[in-house]
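Hello forum,

I keep getting stuck at the same step: I have a sequence, I want structure tokens, and every attempt I make locally crashes halfway through. Rather than fight my setup again tonight, could one of you with a working pipeline run this one for me? It's a single chain of 557 residues.
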Amino acid sequence: MIGTLDSKIKTIGGNHMTEPKYMGKIVQSESSPLEMSSKKRRLKAIVREEVREQAREGSYYVIESENGSVRLLALCIKIESFSKNENISFKNFDEFVTHAELEVIGKLSDSGIVENDNGNYHDYGLRKAYPDEIRKWLKLPAGGLYCGDLLIDKEVSEMKFCLPTELLYYSLFVCGSKGSGKTTCLRTLLPRTINPDEPHEKAPSIVILDVEGEFADRGSQGLFESGGWEVDLKTISADASAATATLSLSLIHYEHFAHFVGNLPMNSLIHLEQIYKEIYTENHAKGLSPKAPEILKAIQEKAWRRPHLHESQRNAINRVTMSGLFSMFDQENLPALLPISMVVPGKVTIIDVSSMTDDQQRVVALYLLSIFSSYKTPDKDSTGLLLVLDEAQKLFPHKGDLKREYSQRLAGFVGSIVRRGRRRRYGIILSTQHPVDVARDVVELCDTKIVFRMSGPLQWLKDTLRDAESARYAISLNVGEAFVVSNGLCMPTPAQIKIPAPAYEPKRIAVPAIVKPVPATVKQQIPQKVEPIRRGLDALFDNCIQTECLTAISRRL
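Reply #2:
Ran it on my machine without issues. Output:
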């Protein structure tokens, strides 16, 4: 039996344990050493009764020697409280006590976290870890793009989670179920990519392919404008009367043209690639930029004249050139989307394609990928570019009605752009509600992933977060909470953050309520012979008397 816990704690290290920062002590003996194995490095501690409410599972603590020369960072695994006269492990206590099980992560040093040796840590002090100590363990960058506040033990801490802006050019993948905060995350992060401490010429440019119309509203535009961005809203539609811009077929490089006609049989596709390459080379040699009708007509003519081309292949090529996939190209009296007008420092271009089909939206996405891939070269332009593609499962599906060969080639096309974009400051940000439906090669190439609440599949979450416990908890995340993993940060565990809502609030204008008159059909229910009463009721109608009351009066008449 040992004495009271308070008196025992006060005797440890003289007056050292009387400091408020210590909330308990380590209890270690030969029968309860520091367990050393590949996965478990655990110690046991007794928590002071007056601060036991502050001890929580999942929080970080520091085990510290009397002089502070030895500091071990540990994660609290289990908290248990026992009544007096109960036996705990190897000792009996005659008072109410709280017992904490701690998993030792490593020894804190000036350089970070290092391996600690087996040893005797009995009577060492226990306190909550300071933010800089947790930051060393998580390897969080000190500065960068503010994403949100770090969550420790499911509660918002005072630590800010920042992502180096350059990592965005290594591409970003954002996923989460509907209503989890995915779109709010993008609306919060993207306007912050302008660094006010840097010259405006170094600001990136942003192009957003708005599939659902979530960025085209006035509130989203206001978020960018309040951050110093120039906002340009464009609408692409198969209906030229509803569009404000069009696509230019002559800008599509011959190496990319085949991706626009994915379901064409392979033999026919090979001939189409060769025909378009000939047309593309001839026009560039002459300095010409023909419109889509001219190019498509030239393809048809070359297909008819081409020797050794089977009739079925010729017909397949003609069907493609006359399909609706090219209806958005070179529409009359509409300006073309040109990279030189979009890749401008401090400019965000929002392209609304919400009225189009999935296939048409995919064509617009491929168009943007193609023209930016040709334009973003080190010798042409050094302005940073972030291309945001919403609802990525529609654009680059893992499965669906697309042929397997086409899906693979599409993933390879996007993958090559992502790899080359890292050197050219050209990053792609993908957003989706269904990550398993996005081509896997595309997802894997994204260096940083932000995962909001999702119902599964659990195996995908485990593979992505590389932590089984985080994968299970991702199912129950609150709105605006997410896990972040990044190869560029080399974090030992996923960082859980809380992303704040956008600060911009659109101005509200008070509009007087418009009182709608009661329909005339209700008036007609009143008998026509009671004219004096009818005139009186007309005045009541003008004051919006409820229809049920009028019906009751008419019945009595």
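The radius of gyration is 33 Å. If your local run keeps crashing, start a new thread with the error log.
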